[in-house]
From TrEMBL:
This is Patatin. Residues 391-416 are annotated as: Disordered. Its EC number is 3.1.1.-. GO terms for molecular function: hydrolase activity. Residues 398-416 have a biased composition (Low complexity). PROSITE patterns: PNPLA. The nitrogen atoms of the two glycine residues in the GGXR motif define the oxyanion hole, and stabilize the oxyanion that forms during the nucleophilic attack by the catalytic serine during substrate cleavage. Lipolytic acyl hydrolase (LAH). Signal peptide: none annotated.
Length: 416
């Protein structure tokens, strides 16, 4: 493919037009290029969406991704494949935002900082720092300071520009009283939208209190709290971002051009008689209800292609019982190894689907079977792109110039 193309006011070239012109020129001169190769037929943008913590504080999603990564390595024959190799964009809220950052932030060697398996160990090892009361008015506690130290040591000085693919991570901004979405696409355009990854994770997790943060140029101030308040299930935001971002996803025209994996956080076992629960529990009920509503709406939007193009993994807390205790209580009390084993049982359950105006239903496929099947779809898409002449994704890259400049480059690769 052509090398990077500088985008600026003095050098504004439409790369796709140039590619098409080159193909037509070869066709006219040599008669060798087939016009059917002008667009990658049936190519789909691959979206990964991860809910807020839910009943499992991100461990369910992390375990699902560990299974998926293992499946992709087996199917591709590449033992060093990463989750980020097979997705074009990731959206994560709360604990899901932290997972997105772990899996898609570039390390010093140019590779993602974490594999799915090492990300699973990370969230499992640091559950106490990641779990706390959902009160957003509480002062920044000692546990919150421990979490801040952990994230700073994990991500260092990395910012949104240092992610390997497009990233969306929401929080709720108390200063503007509106949702705020941290976006890599915005970060590469202007320093005022570029934030340290550690701050982004603190803001979207924000279970210890509001996090005051500034962009790298110190001009944008955010007072961020839990991303689950803004959007516990960011799937719709990710889809909207892709469909309206023609610069990075020029060939995507509708949901039939998408391949979406949405990971839930596990449902809590809220009983109808539990009407006098604490406010924090009702906040979680609201978050889970919002996630189900997004799932229903997205599923309806996909219509006839929802079984192949949209997959939702969500374990039912009411079903997931062991020795008379619900999964949520197990996770709070069990040791690390036992927690992962309990999550494994949740994945072996039959998948739970939300049906618009009809509640939930249990389908025949288990969560693990759906993950395995989705891995096959990802591999098919990867093979399609190897024969495509035009890039499916034109990923904006940060300019090597100082961060005071907002100039960007466009990078294309046949692997996209």
């Amino acid at each position: 493919m052509a090398s990077n193309l500088l985008v600026g006011s003095s050098f504004d070239v439409d790369k796709l037009t140039f590619e098409i012109f080159s193909i037509l020129e070869n066709k006219f001169l040599f008669g060798e290029t087939k016009l059917s190769k002008l667009s990658p037929q049936n190519s789909r943008i691959r979206i990964l969406s991860i809910d807020g913590g839910g009943a499992t504080n991100g461990i369910l999603a992390a375990k699902s991704l560990a299974h998926l990564e293992s499946s992709l390595r087996r199917k591709s024959g590449n033992p060093n494949a990463y989750i980020s190799d097979y997705f074009d964009i990731v959206a994560g809220s709360g604990a899901g935002g932290l997972l997105a950052a772990l899996l898609f932030t570039r390390g010093k060697d140019g590779l993602p900082l974490f594999t799915a398996d090492s990300a699973l160990r990370f969230v499992n090892d640091h559950q106490k720092k990641l779990s706390s009361s959902r009160s957003v008015l509480r002062r920044f506690s000692r546990r919150g300071k421990h979490l801040e130290k952990l994230l700073r040591s994990t991500f260092g000085e990395s910012t949104l520009r240092d992610t390997v693919k497009s990233v969306l991570i929401p929080c709720y901004d108390l200063s503007s009283r509106a949702p705020f979405v941290f976006s890599r696409a915005d970060a590469v355009e202007a320093d005022g939208f570029d934030f340290k990854i550690s701050d982004v994770c603190l803001a979207t997790c924000a279970v210890h209190g509001a996090v005051e943060m500034r962009s790298v140029d110190r001009k944008t101030n955010i007072l961020g709290v839990d991303g689950g308040i803004a959007m516990n299930n960011p799937t719709a935001a990710a889809i909207t971002h892709v469909l309206n971002n023609k610069q990075e996803f020029p060939l995507c025209n509708g949901v039939e051009d998408l391949l979406v994996l949405s990971l839930g956080g596990g449902e809590s076992d809220f009983r109808i008689q539990n009407l006098h629960s604490s406010p924090s529990r009702f906040v979680r009920i609201a978050g889970e209800g919002a996630s189900d509503t997004v799932d229903q709406a997205v599923s309806m939007a996909f219509g006839q292609c929802r079984t192949s193009n949209y997959v939702r993994i969500q374990a039912n807390g009411i079903i997931a019982k062991k020795q008379g205790r619900v999964m949520e209580k197990q996770i709070k009390s069990q040791k690390k190894g036992e927690i992962v084993a309990a999550i494994e049982e949740m994945l072996e359950q039959k998948n739970v689907e939300s049906v618009l105006f009809k509640g939930k239903r249990i389908v025949e496929s288990t969560n693990l079977e759906k993950i395995e099947s989705f891995g096959g779809e990802l591999m098919k898409e990867e093979e399609r792109r190897k024969t495509s002449i035009l890039p499916t994704v034109v990923l904006k890259q940060a300019s090597p110039s100082p961060r005071t400049s907002s100039a960007t480059t466009l990078s294309t690769s046949s692997s996209y």
